[in-house]
Amino acid sequence: MTSVRFRQQLLQIAAPLVVTVLVLIVWHLAVTLAEVPPIVIPSPVAVGQALVENSSRLWSASVETAKAAMAGLALSIGLGVLCAFAFSQSSLIRSAFYPYAILLQTVPIIAVAPIVVIAVERGFYGVSLIAAIISIFPVITSTTTGLLQVDPQLLELFRLNTASRWQTLWKLQLPHALPYLISGIRIAGGASIVGAIVGEFFVGSSLTGLGVMIERKRSGFDTDELYATVFVSTLLGVIMFALVTVIGEWILRRFFAMSMSGRTR
Amino acid sequence: MGEHSRTSQEQPKALHADQTPLEGAGGPTGERSDHSAIAVEQLTFAYNDRLPHVLSVEQLGVSSGELVSVLGASGCGKSTLLRLVAGLLLPTTGRIHRRGLAGNPGMVFQSPTLIPWRSARDNVLLPSELGQGRTIDERRLAELFDMVGFAQQDTQKRPGELSGGMQMRVSIARALVLEPQLLLLDEPFAALDDLLRMQLEEDVRQIHSQRGLTTLLVTHNINEAVFMSDRVVVLGGTPSGVAADIPIDLSERDQSLRSAPAFHALVEKVTQSLYRANGMESDGPADSRSVGEKPPGKTSEEMLSDKTPSGGTPSNDRTG
User: Could you list the pLDDT tens digit for every one of the 320 residues in chain B?
Assistant: First the structure.
């Protein structure tokens, strides 16, 4: 039984790794055999070398981008949860403001970013705000859903015992919404990295984040370093996603006997 | 519930029990008594202005210390009536008086409705944390767990770690923690297996008697209604009203009662009333049937058309 489970877990890890190795081999063979100029598509070996050679710069750029993304994410969580509270308390508020929440999701961030940077600041705060704009929608929608989808019989029980609105929110709706909120933050976390990088495209040399590096490498035709930077950016998004998932699952299991899938133990 | 349904949340004043002395209305329907703990008078209810009335109850009384079952087909408004008595819904017209029943009523729902992140103990204590808040003595809490047959060593377990029966016992304890004088039971055993259901029926009846509660039980199970109640009120018609009010004159309520001829005679009597209330004909004994089960001499199509007078979902009840 245990060995079967171990084999399944091993397969889950090994299978995507094998795919990665195969893709790298095909990529390397394709660019080498087809003699594609490295300035157009570098080989994975060249990208790996660029990754190692620029590791310290990539690290500091990642930290800077992560900081802006985290600040944006914190802002989107704070504002998003407040919006969700308001939406859950009144259908009138929901009807009046929900279309604008959707607007935040549908507006192309690449078009809004320069406007925000000009209006707010060509620096950290401008970038953080762009990260917040792109990441707030999943927080609002998922938390609102969680607050509203409470068992109606439990709501009746609270009403029967003359619970105040605050008691209902604090003791029932908010804990119930927690798995939904964490699911929202998981999506928002990845989005905030994208927002921070897009924001950095437009701030020029005032910052040294991954977005600034990508823009510099692109204009300098340092394609192998550009690929290395893009790889690190992707990795940062994955780390953010994994971090929120692990912490969120732990909180839910430890304190609320729940999981993100909504099942209770 | 419809978008425009009238709930007490919209008009909170009506939540409180009416303390005004009643002119009468109590005991069996239509009789007048000064002992009514709950008196329903000229009640009608519709979920909103566009929908037809679900309930039209001219008069219904429940005396203090009585256990009354409300029996009827699915969708006939049994649970709606219970929620009206609880103050969770407001009548469209008419009045519901609650007299001499201090405090909030205790309520047990069809499912245990426990909060998954709270332990059994914390779920039971929940009502004491709501509203103005109240401290519950540890000794009294232990007694309560004993009374509902819940093991003390399991009180720190969360609902996910408990069986369905244990969850229901926690739910009953929660309904009783503030020592209510009125207990409302909304098909609490419908989802349980027969053995467990029969045990809990006996336990709850015992708790009702020990605590001198006034209890209103909504059920579609005829055996359950007869076993537990002092009276069975049968709802029927469109909109639903009181079609029959049957006193249950049984003394002991232990499991041996289920095989007694008097019990079976009462089950048969209630069954016949139920058929009549739903415009059906019965041509044989029907004990152990649940409401909604196809009676002899009635096709399924006829049953469906009987059960969906206002476009509701056809009944799909469990057999009791």
Answer: 333 455 554 433 333 344 333 333 333 444 444 568 899 999 999 998 888 899 999 999 999 999 999 999 888 899 999 999 999 999 999 999 988 888 889 999 999 999 999 999 999 999 999 988 788 889 999 999 998 889 999 999 999 999 998 999 999 999 999 999 999 999 999 888 888 889 999 999 999 999 999 999 999 899 999 999 999 999 988 898 999 999 998 878 888 888 889 999 999 999 999 988 888 766 555 444 555 444 444 433 343 334 333 333 333 333 32
Q: Is B307 on the interface with A (CB under 8 A)?
A: no
CB contact under 8 A, A256 and B116: yes
Among candidate residues B214, B262, B219, the one with its CA nearest the CA of residue B100: B214
Total number of residues shown for chain A: 265
- Say if the Cβ atoms of A255 and B158 lie within 8 Å: no
Contact B158 A163 (CB under 8 A): no
CB contact under 8 A, A160 and B113: no
Q: Using an 8 Å CB-CB cutoff, list chain B residues near A154.
A: 113, 115
- DSSP E strands in B125-226: the ranges are 182-186, 214-219
Q: Which of B179, B212, B228 is the last residue of a domain?
A: B179
Identify the CATH assignment for A43-256 out of 1.10.3720.10, 3.30.70.60, 3.30.470.20, 1.10.1740.10.
Answer: 1.10.3720.10
C-alpha span between A236 and A10 (Å, rounded)? 24
Question: What stretches of chain B adopt beta strand conformation (E)?
Answer: 36-45, 55-63, 67-71, 93-98, 106-108, 182-186, 214-219, 231-236, 241-247
